[in-house]
Amino acid sequence: MLEVLRIGHRPDRDKRMTTHVCLTARALGADRVLVDTADRELEKRMAKVSESFGGAFEVQTGVRWRPLLKGTDATVVHLTMYGENIATWEGPRWETLRTAPHVIVVVGSTKVPGELYELADVNAAVGNQPHSEVAALAIFLYLLQGGEALRREMAGGRLQIVPQERGKRVLDMGGLGEETADGLGLEL
Amino acid sequence: MLEVLRIGHRPDRDKRMTTHVCLTARALGADRVLVDTADRELEKRMAKVSESFGGAFEVQTGVRWRPLLKGTDATVVHLTMYGENIATWEGPRWETLRTAPHVIVVVGSTKVPGELYELADVNAAVGNQPHSEVAALAIFLYLLQGGEALRREMAGGRLQIVPQERGKRVLDMGGLGEETADGLGLEL
């Protein structure tokens, strides 16, 4: 089980950033994103993406993260530019994470409470420079799983993108044939 | 020379997303981000990051991208979920890009003009699922350069993060000694 926990979410201000956190988690094969602040719109927005493009990914908001992290058996990895640079990790370090039955990757918004550094098993930096949490999450999930993460089929969706050298090709499995992506009305 | 071109930037609506594109480009070792729409605030915001944390990275806005792409000798890689999945690329494909003297990686905002697919040398998908352009850029730049991208020292900054297992440690090279990151006033 691979989960992402997003804390410090402010529905109005962080709408797009948290949506991008969720899109990234989904595209890189996470099972679920947990968000601290309740946000039904975000849940619905992401449910729509999975409805269109498949997969069992889900978003749960309004999650009380302190009791969650205190009570979990999962390996908790907090991504922060202040942590240990993952570019210096040797293979065994990654192997431990790869074989863990349950990993929760935590990403904050602007600033996170100090106790998170204590609650996490690992404070990991995707480079020690000011960063985007979306970028850090993307690279971390990629390195955790390898290229496989980007090749996974997501079943049950109505639409399927067919890779092209030029232009766009989307198959509509819902019986409407092929449509251009421009018609999808995606505003991500 | 490694550049990122951001098109479709709307200064009010995309403020944070484009800032995250720039932070990602900088943290992953790009030399420069070019942005189509003029946005002095964005230039200043990112100049401040480099002033604090070092490096020669810069942001130039108000760039006319069509003449730029038409006239350039650079290899132009457009990141789009409709393109060829980079997870299927073999080594030689990457090698060609790694040895190219000048690469421009293009990321759009919501929707990009169709002609971009023609102007690009490569339309590359970081997975064929709806994605975040920040995440796609991060993984692409990482794979292009390898872990080295995250270990690069950025010279000349006032502040330097010292990787920690727990908590935050920032050295202030400007003579003020050590300060906690909370005092940095970073709102990214």
Verbal overview:
Two copies of one chain form a homodimer. By secondary structure, chain A is α/β, with parallel strands linked by helices. Chain A is built from seven helices and nine strands. In chain A, the strands form two sheets. In chain A, strands 3-2-1-5-4-6 form a six-stranded parallel beta sheet. In chain A, strands 7-8-9 form a three-stranded antiparallel beta sheet, with no helix packed on it. In chain A, α1 runs parallel beside α6. The first copy, chain A, is globular, with a radius of gyration of 17 Å. Chain A starts with a strand and ends in a 9-residue tail after the last strand. The C terminus of chain A is likely disordered. At the A-B interface, α1, β4, α6 and α7 of A face α1, β4, α6 and α7 of B.
